[in-house]
Each structure stands twice: as structure tokens, then as C-alpha cells.
Amino acid sequence: MSTIGDELKRVREEIEEARRHSLTGEPVQLIAVTKTHGVDVIEEALKCGVTDIGENKVQELTQKIDALGSRVRYHMIGNLQSNKVKYIYNDVVLIHSLDRPSLAKEIQKRGCETDHVVHCLLEVNIGDEASKGGLAYDQVLPFLESILDYSHLKVDGLMTVAPNVDDEAYLRKLFRKMVALKEDIAGRHYEGVDMTHLSMGMSQDFHIAIEEGANMVRVGSRIFGARHY
Predict the structure, then answer these.
(1) Which of 17, 31, 126, 149 could join 54 via S-S bond, C-beta 3.0 to 4.6 A?
(2) Whole-number Cα distances in Å, 59 to 109, 119, 164
(3) What is the dihedral of CA 173, 176, 181, 186, to 10 degrees?
(4) Rg (CA), the chain
């Protein structure tokens, strides 16, 4: 029976293999997605070198922050309600799911109150799926320009959740659109905006995402097994 350490080793090897074939050759940061898994499981992952974990729900995230403290870097990767920003904005290194004006306004407000700069990624609904959050592709630039004067919110890149399909050519096309968008924004040299991170790719498609230019992947079930709902 394989352990978390065994699975992490395999995932890291696959990430490195994909990186060698990637368009950019950039190092790839692994976010271990720990939603529904307990602190004991995360403790084992930390022993195997995991430094960053991702959570989808605020309640779960705050419980893990209370239990693990500063031993790990926290990422909010799921849909974030504006009224829950206050519980996590000070503790996460990155909010991956900024996708609407009301959320940006709340992040800016909370950051101003404590003079804390909150780092975020713009979430893009690259597959134009009605069931998912994220900005429509053609709304990313207008939205970004509308928040450029937010002093305590910093955009550090883009995130997407690709459609869960087996069509590799289609997925590659979508990932390439994300890379093109990242490069377009970077080329505009907006003050205070960095296109450092391109967070795309999960357990089922991270190889393809990395080959097409992702430098951050969010992998859960491949490492920890099926989730416990």
C-alpha cells in the first residue's frame, strides 16, 4: 500500500518530467490540496517536504491554521465569499479566486484596516462554464484596470480551473489562451501588477498544464487519495 510520501515522490517526478517538456522551462510550485483531509494527514505531508497547502472552504482553512500555525503556507483556492474574507486574509499567502468587484472591495477594505497587503490571483473561467466562478476571458483586463488603485490588494498572476474533459487538444488550447493572457498583461506593465504565477492544472491535467506554461499546480487526490465527504 503506497504512502503519502510515495505518492508525493511520483507526483514530483511527473511535475519535473512535464517541466522538462514545457514551453517555458520554469520551476513549478506544487500546492498540495488538503480539503476534507485531517491535520494528521497534512502532518505526514509536511514531513515529506510539502510547504504549501490549498483549501477550498474558509471554515476548513481556519481550522488548519489554528492547528498548524506557521509551519505551512496557506492558499485559498476555492470560491471566496466577501463576508468571509475577514477570517483568512491575514493568514494566506495567496487568494487564487479573485473574480468580482465586491470581493476585491472587501479585500482592499480589510487590508487597509490592518495595513496588510493581500496577494491575489485573478480567476479566469477559461472554459466559459456556467457552473464555475471566474472572470470571463474578455472581462479580465477591464476588471484588472478597475482595481489598479487598490493599495492593499496586489495581483500576482492568474488562475484557472479547466473543464474536466478528456479532450487533450482542447485543454491545451485553453491553457495556451491563459498563457497568452498572462503575457498580454505582463506586456502592459501595469504598476503594482506582477504576472509571477500561472496557477492551472490539477490531479487529472497538471502534466498538460505544465507543458503549456503553468508554473503552479494544485494537486490533491493524486497525493492524498479520494476525499472524505
Answers:
(1) 31
(2) 21, 20, 26
(3) 180
(4) 17
Question: What are the phi and psi torsion angles at 224 (to 5°)?
Answer: -105, -5
Q: Which residue has the cell 497534512?
A: 42
Rounded to whole angstroms, the Cα distance separating 91 from 89 reads 6
- Which amino acid is present at 16? E
Contact present, 157 and 197 (Cβ < 8 Å): yes
How many Å from the N-terminal Cα to the C-terminal Cα in the chain? Answer: 22
pLDDT of 14 > 60? The answer is yes
pLDDT tens digits, 174-204: 999 999 999 999 999 999 999 999 999 999 9
Phi, psi (degrees; rounded to nearest 5) at 76: -95, 110
Cell of 161: 480551473
Query: Which SS3 state, helix, strand or coil, does residue 122 take?
Result: strand
Place of cell 490533491: 220
At 203, which helix (H) or strand (E)?
A: none
Query: What beta strand segments (E) does the chain contain?
Result: 29-33, 52-55, 73-76, 92-98, 118-124, 153-160, 197-199, 216-219
Where residue 177 falls (left for φ over 0; alpha for ψ -120 to 50; beta otherwise) is: alpha
Q: How far apart are CA 69 and CA 59, in angstroms?
A: 15
Q: How many Å apart are CA 121 and CA 224, to the nearest integer? A: 25
Comparing CA positions, the residue from 144, 109, 108 lying closest to residue 123 is 144
